[in-house]
């Protein structure tokens, strides 16, 4: 996959793209990550990319010219998904990450100041994404978040091919608890079932723990799931315990 980011502060991505899973993904050839400074695509000698909004108002607005020029130069006639990081956009979810991970190329637009010229939204962008109901100073941190979520889903990136399948939200449920050595740490013990060697019982325990954790922390997710009779019965038992 090729991922290109357009930003006014490309230096922000150096540390994130050069460490951990994102670094390993590039070394494995699973993804190519590139970041360009929007200013280099301006058409004036001062590299100005923003201007005052028509009609007045506080703040500065990103001009359409540099964004259009940048995307046209980067894509060279191709038609990848052009993603605008914006608090007005679609709420980012694991399902969206899985959708984007199927693409061959993604371009992320990050901006600062008051906002974007509306023509960027109307005629250039294919997706608008928000990582939550809050406002940040720019789109860089949200873009890093989305890119990390997408890249880890690419084939060969994680150590085990099915590592991401059991992640929270991938199954519709929150992930079950994890334990490792020592089995007894300061009197806090690993559940016996996990050391039993009975994989069928372990799988059942993990499923029930996922259901329980989702019921306790994100019951709204259960409303969207098509639960089995056994899962529904377990949820009913949790409700009775809570009464």
What's a quick, concise take on this entry?
By secondary structure, this protein is of the alpha/beta class. Helices cover 36% and strands 17% of the residues. It has 2 domains: 2-151, 3-Layer(aba) Sandwich (Alpha/beta knot), CATH 3.40.1280; 171-242, tRNA(m1g37)methyltransferase, domain 2 (Trp Operon Repressor, Chain A).
Task: Name the descriptors.
alpha/beta, Alpha/beta knot, Trp Operon Repressor, Chain A, 2 domains, five-stranded parallel beta sheet, three-stranded mixed beta sheet, 10 strands, elongated
Layout: helices, strands, pairs:
Layout: E1 2-7, H1 14-17, H2 20-27, E2 32-37, E3 50-51, E4 61-62, H3 64-75, E5 81-91, H4 94-100, E6 105-109, E7 115-116, H5 118-123, E8 127-130, H6 140-151, E9 184-185, E10 188-189, H7 199-217, H8 219-223, H9 229-242
Parallel strand pairs: 1-2, 1-6, 4-7, 5-6, 5-8
Antiparallel strand pairs: 3-4, 9-10
Structural notes for this entry:
The chain is an alpha/beta fold and 243 residues long. The chain folds into two domains: 2-151, Alpha/beta knot (3-Layer(aba) Sandwich); 171-242, tRNA(m1g37)methyltransferase, domain 2 (Trp Operon Repressor, Chain A, Orthogonal Bundle). 36% of the residues lie in helices and 17% in strands. The protein is built from nine helices and ten strands. The strands form three sheets. A five-stranded parallel β-sheet has the order 2-1-6-5-8. A three-stranded mixed β-sheet has the order 3-4-7. A two-stranded antiparallel ribbon has the order 9-10. Strand 9 (184-185) and strand 10 form a beta hairpin. The protein is elongated. The model has no long low-confidence stretch (mean pLDDT 93).
